[in-house]
Amino acid sequence: METGCIGRRIAYWRGFRGFTQADFGRLMGQTRRWVQDLEGGQRQQDPRLSVLVRAAEVLRIPLEQLLTDGPSESPPAPSPPVEALAVIDVLYREDNEDGDPPPLTELRRRLTYCCEAFQACHYGALGRDLPMLIAGSRRSAARADDEAGEAHVLLSRVLQLAASFLHKYGPATAVQAAVVADRALAAAERSGDPIAIGAASRRVAKSLMYQHQPRTAVEFATGAARRLSTELEAGGPLGLSTLGRLYLSAAVAASSLGRSPTVVRQVDEHVGQAAEVADQQGADLDEDYTMFGPTNVELHRVDVLTRLDDGAEALKAAADLEEDALHGLSKERQAQHLITMARAQLLTRRKEAAAESLIKAARLAPEEVVGRESTIDLVADVVGATPVPGGDLRRLAVRCGLPA
């Protein structure tokens, strides 16, 4: 066996699974330096078969993928989930219905239902209702006259929701999410509404992250915040929530740049900017379903610390959160926090706690766990790191389609 080739294949599949060297080392029961040496072909002349078998298990690939002398095969492109297919289809379909579009009051009512479904993590229901809402709001904006600005704001909000929905499924829907986020921004700019423009800019920044352009995402989010700050600050709680979420988007994007003192300072700066806006707002509010406020800022602090592989500091920050404030957030936000906690707990080798966090998240919002590839991968990592998984963890793994 050629050690260098095996190391490069391990590095390839580690990157594809989204593991840092520290993540992979932890799952292998080794150090980050050990992984660096292994991937660089410096561990030993011929890696032991037991090491390769364990690496294949952790990476969830056939052992042959590490032993093949030819170039690694490209991983199969993920398929969009069923609940997203109808949404994707309507994005590329021409409107050919005759008659007047639904009135704005009816479209707003449907949008409220869909936003509430999103916050409750009822993604199946959202996938059924969102296509009709997209088509109706698009027709309304195309035929608007006196209410042109209002119709385009509504269309932008609908497309923003569609982008957030598609972002839930990661690489499988990343391209379509980017398309719809750009359309949301175009509709917002046509309306001239600074709050709609700021909210749509946040979705574009997230799409840039999924396109592996975190630096551009940071610049885009902070640029929008600078350009719109005066108008957003004058826009009351809704404007402040929009501005604060832009800073949080910048913080999350910056945390994907790779850990360094400069990046840590940059992330902390953006979280601090969001905290200042939250203090100005004065309370946790759900303006336009943003769930923005002091609590959400602290949840993002926990999240970015976890993304920076600082699990200990993330758990320390989480310990300061107030339970009552957490329970006042949407199910989607609570479940996301529990998933983040599971990642931080796994980083700090608290495997049982990580399992319990995932189990709680699945009980609270099943579709946030069992229907998302990134979370399923996390469940697999926790199962793989647990010598004897408990019954609840095994049942969760089975629900996720994983061997238990």
From TrEMBL:
Species for this entry: Streptomyces pulveraceus
Ranges in coiled-coil conformation: none
Name of the protein in question: Helix-turn-helix domain-containing protein
Annotated HTH cro/C1-type domain residues: 10-66
